Amino acid sequence: MPDCSGQQIVKCAAASEERRRNMKPFSALYFIKENRVRCALLAIMLFLGYAAYLGGLYVTNIRDSWEVPFGYTDKMVLVYGETEEQIERYKQFQRETAADSRIKMIPVSRRNHLNWKTIMGFEIGQYAYTFASVRDFETYCKYMGVVCDFKNLKDGSMVMSPKMSKNRGIKIGDKIEKDDADTIFGSYTLDALTEEDGYTIYFIDKKMSEDYTAMLLSDELGKDRLQDYAVEKYGSYDDENLEEKIDEELSFLYSIYIFIIMFLALILAVTICAAFVGMYQRRNFEFAVYRAIGVSKRRIVGKISSELLWMDLASLFGGGIIFFFGLYLFNNMVLYPEGKYLRYFNPLALTGLAVCNITVLIPLVVTRCRQMLKADICEY
Hints:
Elements: H1 4-22, H2 28-34, H3 36-47, H4 50-64, H5 67-73, E1 76-80, H6 84-98, E2 104-109, E3 116-117, E4 123-124, E5 127-131, H7 134-144, E6 157-160, H8 162-168, E7 175-176, E8 188-193, E9 200-204, E10 213-217, H9 223-233, H10 242-281, H11 284-292, H12 297-335, H13 347-373
Parallel strand pairs: 5-9, 6-8
Antiparallel strand pairs: 1-10, 2-5, 2-10, 3-4, 6-9, 7-8
């Protein structure tokens, strides 16, 4: 009969020796591998910091929708006449500009516009101009690089960006009149869609040329030189900065977001630090042995820091894949059909995530290091 007990002893000894050789007590990845489930649960808690990133995308969504119009306003200068004296100067300026081949002066009106529904549930105005003719609109599109099919356009036409069309639920051939919105001053039919991003709308109405407002466009002159030209020839121009105006109107949202980020970071720091207390409490004996055999404090701190950092990185990268995949599905299945969207990146959102992560990680490393450095073998 073979000596089974002897074979088992040899096998156990060999297995023990193999485990001893593979043990890497100061390897952060070895610890995480041996405690996969527990570390995964704690990484999920760290993943909650992406709530700050999502909040940043929501808060900046409205401003992001104005990026295209911001680019347009950098290429034009607006002039207008309100008083009788200004109107007379406007007419004279119009005649002088018509003789200057470098500059194109297009009569426009800013009275017609439609609000669009934001992702936050309220409505807000958007970039809108009314042109006196299809030719003027074509000229505008040429200078701005707007792609549009002009063949069905006529007096009384309305043109929208695709997102604006979906957001308002207006399709090609649909008509909108004064009774449908108090910001509309005529009857218009949606006859074309542009290929623009964001929310834009244009109208064609020859009666609106009586507003004595015009945009100056030029391929040769930059905006600064167009402004100088308007001051020299006309005396003034519309100096309102659209980007600054939008930022000012949305500043209250940024203030609310900063407050929420601070509150969220505090809650996450307290909650996650408390969760890690239990995990490291079970390891008091392990670190007591390290101290008893003379392992330096610096090496112990390095071990704890690397463990926590690897778990944090795993939550950021692994959680990021889950987060962005979920955002992709949410955009395509819910928001895009409604003419809404969330961008995948914004610097403010990234800052919010970083603040939450750092606010959690630094206290976590400090408190766990202090806890483990107090471990004493004499207590066991």
